[in-house]
Write the structure tokens for this entry.
Amino acid sequence: MNVRRSAAVLAATVVIGTATPAVAASPSPSPSPSLPSGLYGSSDPTYDGVWRQSLALIALYRAHAEPAAAAVDWLAGQQCANGAFPAFRANPAKACDAKLMVDTNSTAVAAQALSVVGGHGTAVTKAVTWLKSVQNKDGGWGFAPGGASDANSTSVVIGALLTQHTPVPTIRNGAKSPYDALLKLSLPCADGGAFAYQPDKKGKVRANADATAAAVVAAHGTNFVTARADTGRETTCADTPDLTPARAAANGASFLVEAVAKDGYLKSVLPGAEDQPDYGNTADAVVALAAQGGPEAARKPLAWLERNSAKWAAQSGPAAYAQLILAAEASGADPGDFGGTDLVKELTATGPASVTASQGDREDQEDSDTSVWWMIGAGLAAGAGIGFLLSSRNKRKRP
């Protein structure tokens, strides 16, 4: 749900359809020479434009702030005639062709964003229809159409399906629903009750913190738009003969509670590098814990983010501010005073002026997300193949 997704998209662009390890990208790609005026953020949108724009619009909606019409128009203009969205297309006036890489994640998050801005019901329906058309036989979705199902992609698509108010179990490819695919990736309590991103080459599934956060939200029946503090369902793990989405969500939340119990945050794990606090995944975990267990379950990681996330968000740009707003909104905190930072003001300052932000607010933010590209390059350099590379956004191993 954050800048790590950019690395995943870049990796997918390089290696999908091949069996050879990807070549690491330059750690400092040049910014796009002419950014669209309606776009949030100042870094090259090639690999994350639709994702960060959609998160920004959803976050502003959650915070009761109205985005500029140009921002909404930019996102809507990225859609292809078949309903799918790419990560970014520089010339929306040109029809999408077979060379343009569309993906389930961009399409699903854009559907969620356009569902709340008003006036884009047809676009949302087309996006969801396309997603249904590329559903895998196991009921789930991979990042690229036809790719092996993974927990993160399946979860964000479930979020898009929820915008149509259609019961998720009824969306099937043959006998399998999205929840069938998701529950196959749920681990037993002996392994923490977490979700895996997807099976490894040997068919084994291993706990993955960010996949767990995404899956808990989806199994709970919510999405980016609707996830918020519940009255407090259980966050304990229990193995049952017939695993249900509700039970799997509780089990996954139990894993997240344990993962943040010591330090208050999740850690990023890259081969050859020291473990570092993972701000984005921690924000995702806050949303999942609040949705499943209520404000108290999310209290410790939320407090850690309030104390420590300001510098990360300023460096990372609009998607990071959006994640923090979603974490605050889901857990009942104030995004207007998040550890002393007005997240809504900072987010709106990265894009076109809106009802709640002036042009002057953007001046301090023009270079706020240029360091994203260093993170993308570092993530790709550490990768050894498509499985790891596609996991660099949300699919890191358990801290």
Summary: Confidence is low (pLDDT under 50) at residues 9-33, 356-399.
